[in-house]
TrEMBL record:
Organism: Dactylellina haptotyla (strain CBS 200.50)
Keyword presence, Protease: no
The protein's name: Major facilitator superfamily (MFS) profile domain-containing protein
Subcellular location: Membrane
Any one GO CC term of the record: membrane
Residues annotated as domain Major facilitator superfamily (MFS) profile: 21-417
Length: 447
C-alpha cells in the first residue's frame, strides 16, 4: 500500500497533541525574541537613556547590551543537565531563572543591577531555549522535522514585535521610568506560562531511551506520531533509537542613514520583526522542501551581496546626503533581514542538533551556543566603536565573511532532510558524507 495512505493524518489526534506541545515550547522562542529585542527599543526612550547613560553608542552601551550574551555563553555549560536531568527539567528551571532576571532588571536602581539582571536572564534563557530546541527536534517526525522544529526559532520575531509594541504603548501612556520598567517586567509572562505547562507534557522519548526507560519512550512515540498505536513506522523508529547585531543596533543604523525621529525608528524596528517573522515561517517549510544545504548556501551568498550593497549605499549617503541612497540602504537592511530569516532563523537551533548523535546532542548544542554567544558578544561590544570609526567599511567585513561561510557550507555541510536522527549516522560513517547526503537527499520527497 502506498506510504501516504498509511501515514497518520497530520491533523489527527496524535499530531494535534504534538502541535499543542510545540505551541507551548514555542513560547520560549517568543520569550527569547522579546528579551533580545527589547533593549534596542528601550534605548530609543529618553527616560532609559537618561537613567543609564546610553544616549550615544559607546563602550558602556555595548557592555550593557552584551551582559545578556555573556550570561548566555556561561549558561551553555549548564546544558549537560539536559542529559542528566532531562529536557523538561532544563526548560522549567531555565524559564524560572528568566523570571528572576526580568524582575532584577525591572526593579533596577543602578546600571550594575540592570546588568546583573540581563546576565541572569541570558544565563537561564540559554538553558531554557537550547533545551527547548533539542526537545522539539527529538519529538518531531523525520519527514516534518524541519518545519515543526524549525518554526520554533521563527517565533523569535513575535517576541521582537511584542517588544516594539510594548515600548510604544508604555512610552505613550507613562512618563518617566515607568515607560521602560513595565516592558522589562513583561518579560516574565511567557516563561511563567512555560514553567507551568511543561509539568503536563511527556519527556523526550530519545532521552527516555538513553536513560533506560524504553517502555515510556515507546508509548510517547506512539501517542505523538501514531494516535497511540504502535505502528510499523513507530516500531522501526523506536528500534533505531535503541540501536542563534542588527536588532540591537538597527535604531543606530537608521540614524546613520538619516532616519532620526524616535517613533519612526520604533515603527521601522517593529516592521523589521514582522517581515522577518513571515520570512522565517516560510523558510521553515522551504528547508523541508529544498533541503538544508541548498537553502543555507544560496541564502548565505545572498547575504554577502546585501552587506556589500548596504556598505556602498551608506557610503554614498555619507558622501552626498541624497535621500535615494538612504532609501537604498533601508532596502538593503530589510532585504538582509528577509534573507537571513528565510535561510537561517528556523535552522539555527535545528541543524546543529540534527548532525549530532543522541548522547552528544546536549553537549554539542552547548558548544554551538558558546561559539555563537562568543561571536555575538564580540560583535555587540565592538560594533558601536567599529561603526563609528569604520563607517560603511564595517559592513564590507561582513560581506567578506559571508562569502567565506558560503564556501564552507558548500564543502562540508551534509544534507539532513527527510532522515531520522538515527539514519544520519549512516551518512557520517560513509567515506564522503557530503556526497552521500546529496545522493540520498535527491531520492527524498517531502509532501
Amino acid at each position: 500500500m502506498p506510504s501516504f495512505l498509511t501515514r497518520p493524518s497530520r491533523y489527527g489526534v496524535s499530531y494535534n497533541k504534538l502541535y499543542s506541545i510545540c505551541a507551548l515550547i514555542y513560547l520560549n522562542s517568543t520569550m527569547a525574541g522579546l528579551d533580545a529585542s527589547l533593549i534596542g527599543n528601550l534605548n530609543t526612550l529618553p527616560s532609559f537613556q537618561a537613567f543609564f547613560g546610553t544616549k550615544s553608542s559607546n563602550t558602556a552601551t555595548g557592555l550593557i547590551f552584551a551582559s545578556m550574551q555573556v550570561g548566555g555563553i556561561l549558561g551553555a555549560f549548564t546544558l549537560r543537565l539536559a542529559d542528566s536531568r532531562g529536557r523538561l527539567f532544563c526548560i522549567q528551571m531555565g524559564s524560572l531563572g528568566v523570571i528572576c532576571g526580568a524582575l532584577i532588571q525591572g526593579f533596577s536602581r543602578a546600571v550594575w543591577m540592570f546588568m546583573v539582571g540581563r546576565f541572569t536572564l541570558g544565563f537561564f534563557s540559554t538553558l531554557a531555549c537550547r533545551s527547548s530546541s533539542i526537545y522539539l527536534i527529538e519529538i518531531s517526525p523525520a519527514e516534518r522535522r524541519g518545519t515543526i522544529a524549525g518554526l520554533y526559532n521563527t517565533l523569535f520575531f513575535l517576541g521582537s514585535i511584542l517588544a516594539t509594541i510594548s515600548v510604544l504603548i508604555c512610552e505613550s501612556m507613562y512618563k518617566g521610568n515607568a515607560a521602560w520598567r513595565i516592558p522589562v517586567l513583561l518579560q516574565c509572562l511567557f516563561p511563567a506560562i512555560v514553567a507551568s505547562g511543561v509539568r503536563n507534557i511527556p519527556e523526550s522519548p530519545r532521552w527516555l531511551v538513553a536513560n533506560s526507560r524504553p517502555i515510556e519512550a515507546r508509548d510517547t512515540m506512539a501517542s505523538l506520531h501514531a494516535n497511540g498505536v504502535l505502528s510499523n513506522k513507530v516500531a522501526e523508529e523506536f528500534a533505531q533509537m535503541e540501536a542563534d547585531i542588527i536588532s540591537y543596533y538597527l535604531p543606530t543604523m537608521l540614524n546613520d542613514v538619516g532616519i532620526k525621529e524616535m517613533s519612526t525608528k520604533l515603527y521601522l524596528n517593529g516592521l523589521y520583526a514582522i517581515v522577518g517573522w513571515g520570512a522565517a515561517a516560510m523558510g521553515a517549510r522551504l528547508h523541508d522542501h529544498f533541503g538544508r544545504r541548498k537553502m543555507l548556501y544560496n541564502c548565505t551568498s545572498a547575504l554577502a551581496v546585501c552587506m556589500g550593497m548596504l556598505a556602498l549605499s551608506m557610503g554614498m549617503y555619507y558622501r552626498t546626503g541624497e535621500s535615494r541612497y538612504s532609501l537604498l540602504s533601508l532596502l538593503a537592511i530589510y532585504t538582509f533581514g528577509i534573507i537571513f530569516a528565510t535561510g537561517y532563523t528556523s535552522m539555527q537551533p535545528v541543524y546543529p542538533a540534527e548532525v549530532m548523535t543522541n548522547d552528544m546532542r546536549a553537549r554539542g548544542m552547548a558548544v554551538a551556543t558558546m561559539c555563537g554567544g562568543t561571536a555575538g558578544c564580540i560583535n555587540t561590544l565592538l560594533a558601536p566603536t567599529a561603526m563609528a570609526r569604520l563607517g560603511p567599511m564595517f559592513f564590507f567585513l561582513f560581506c567578506a565573511w559571508d562569502f567565506v561561510e558560503a564556501a564552507i557550507i558548500n564543502l562540508y555541510f551534509v544534507e539532513t532532510k527527510g532522515r531520522t536522527l538515527e539514519e544520519l549516522e549512516e551518512v557520517f560513517n560513509s567515506s564522503d558524507p557530503v556526497a552521500t547526503s546529496i545522493e540520498k537527499g535527491s531520492k527524498e520527497r517531502v509532501f
